[in-house]
Amino acid sequence: MFQCGPVIDSFLRREIDVGSFASAAYAIGSSRGIIAEGAVGNAVAVPFRVRATVDTIYDCASLTKPLITTALILRYVKNIDDKYYGFAYRELLTHTSGLRAWLPLYAYKADYRDTILKEGPEYKRGTKVVYSDLNFILLWCALRDLKFEFVVPMKIADAMFNPPPLLRPRIAATEWGQRYEAKMANRPAPRDGLIWGETHDGNSFFAGGTAGNAGLFATARAIFRLAQAWVNAEVLPRDVVQEATRNHTAGLDDARGYGWQLPTGSEATSMLSPRAFGHTGFTGTSLWIEPDRDRIMVLLTNRVHPCAAPINIQRIRGKFHRLALQSGERPSRPQ
Fold it and tell me: Which CATH class is domain 5-66+151-324?
């Protein structure tokens, strides 16, 4: 078994003790399978406690973007330079479309697509990278218009949208009321009470569970398996995977592949090679893949439970990655 597992557990428990998050689950391994996994803390901390386990299901937030939306677009759209309502799929996938970062689309009378087309444009397309939920909501609209079902592209246990109520005891809770978004939108919170078993993201929630930008629920083990499928070209052909995970925004202010983020020297990724790729989620989730060392690193937390307090989550991710890279042992069991 992976020798750094106990060290990672201790590190994550210290972060829980200082209030960084209520719980965490992780899975670390290679293209062959998991070599370490664990869980610490409380998946639900208020109004009562439910302990986290390796079977705890987390709201994975924006991990939905590369693992689901990007995979479906690259599978079903023949030419990513084709346009959808004036926006090239390439621009949307690389966050160079000129659309603003976010809008509370559920607060507008028009449907999501029409609101984005009217209210979304903010800067000259192709001039900079602005990470935007609106890009992936448009991609979701495109998939619906193309009549493709929005689903997890592989049948993987414990990876789903709209988890059924019977799974609620296994799900990590998120925010008490949608207060963070309310502050962003400068309007009353659209939801009250504990968000538990429903997607935390407001645009996805009011779209029925996902809007392409968020909505995926999964265990750390299931996220690892989805990442492994990318690495092993099970979801898409090898040449498509390689194209999706290279830098398409060189010379701009961020490094982006198709749906994937690339290292930019942040606290979370400074230890990774230029060929690494990954993504994070607002709820406290993270997936990074280091091809040069054949390492897949999944860290899921519910840092927004019971409130979305500011913490240096990038520092935590960086420490986790350093610990995860300290061993090259083979998987202890097949995946």
Answer: alpha beta
